[in-house]
């Protein structure tokens, strides 16, 4: 009789497949931008496949009602239910800030430079203005607009150059980021994943083992997305004011 695989074995195999894909790209693709693009596409495709359908996943720029843009984000998790303005111009995707749940920077290695780079890009999103408008449900109109939550920020890598993955250099990088630049979570596929919890001016973090990095990251991401609930409805009139005729 064929043995039924356990949930852990299924995720372990998915993790090995992902590591194999990214490692092969790293070895074979010598052009750095092309290599980076392939890595980003692998992460986007994986999350598109396994996240619930309510969550959209793409590489994108984030825009607000004041006409300001973030840097291009490697991976954006967003919702179109109450924020319908998502533009795709020849592959360049523009998403309103109100519809964003989370943004991730994707790199080959987890190290100080990439951690700081990811923090700066996350900050460029969190600095954008987000509106919130009343919504109408089958049960009636909700007149108290939902307060925008802090967008999740993270980093995804294949491996790390830190000998002690979550040791002193990692902790120093966390402590040196300001509140708006904070990284909440990340996955280093070959070495483990992490979730950081902030309280006032202090923080704590938890990590996974190296053989559970993907399942740990995925389940923690799902949990954080559930905690956020639904994105606020954007104020369509605020965006309309960008046009002279409205």
Provide a descriptive summary of the structure in words.
This protein has helices at residues 7-28, 32-50, 112-126, 168-175, 213-228, 236-240, and strands spanning 56-63, 73-78, 87-89, 92-96, 100-106, 109-110, 135-137, 140-142, 152-157, 159-160, 185-188, 192-199, 202-207. The protein is of the alpha/beta class and 246 residues long. Strand 11 (185-188) and strand 12 form a beta hairpin. The chain has one domain. It has a nine-stranded mixed sheet, with helices on both faces. The protein has a two-stranded parallel ribbon with strand order 6-10. It is globular, with a radius of gyration of 19 Å. Helix 1 (7-28) runs antiparallel to helix 2 (32-50). The model has no long low-confidence stretch (mean pLDDT 86). 30% of the residues are buried.
Assembly type? single chain
Q: What structural class do the secondary elements suggest? A: alpha/beta
| Strand segment count | 13
Calculate Rg over CA atoms: 19 Å
| Broad shape | globular
Q: What letter string, H or E per element, gives the SSE order?
A: HHEEEEEEHEEEEHEEEHH
Work out the helix count: 6
Number of domains: 1
Fraction of residues in β-strands: 25-35%
How would you state the average pLDDT, rounded? 86
Main beta sheet: 9 strands, mixed
C-alpha end-to-end distance: 69 Å
Arrangement of strands in the largest sheet: 3-4-1-2-5-9-11-12-13
- Extract low-pLDDT stretches: none
Q: How much helix, percentage-wise, in residues? A: 25-40%
């Amino acid at each position: 009789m064929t043995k039924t695989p356990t949930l852990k074995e299924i995720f372990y195999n998915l993790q090995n497949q992902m590591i194999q894909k990214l490692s092969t790209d790293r070895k074979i693709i010598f052009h750095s931008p092309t290599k980076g693009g392939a890595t980003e596409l692998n992460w986007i495709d994986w999350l598109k496949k396994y996240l619930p359908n309510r969550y959209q996943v793409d590489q994108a720029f984030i825009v607000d009602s004041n006409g300001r843009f973030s840097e291009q984000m490697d991976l954006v998790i967003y919702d179109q239910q109450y924020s319908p303005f998502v533009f795709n111009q020849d592959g360049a995707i523009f998403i309103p800030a109100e519809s964003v749940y989370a943004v991730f920077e994707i790199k080959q290695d987890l190290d100080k430079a990439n951690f700081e780079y990811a923090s700066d890009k996350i900050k460029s999103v969190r600095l954008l203005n987000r509106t919130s408008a009343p919504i109408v449900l089958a049960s009636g109109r909700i007149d108290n607009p939902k307060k925008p939550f802090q967008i999740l920020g993270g980093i995804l890598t294949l491996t790390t150059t830190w000998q002690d993955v979550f040791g002193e250099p990692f902790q120093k990088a966390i402590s040196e980021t300001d509140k708006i630049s904070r990284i909440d979570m990340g996955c280093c596929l070959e070495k483990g994943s992490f979730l950081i919890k902030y309280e006032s001016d202090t923080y704590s973090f938890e990590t996974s083992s190296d053989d559970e990095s993907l399942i740990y990251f995925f389940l923690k991401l799902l949990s954080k997305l559930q905690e956020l609930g639904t994105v606020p409805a954007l104020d369509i009139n605020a965006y309309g004011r960008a046009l002279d005729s409205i």
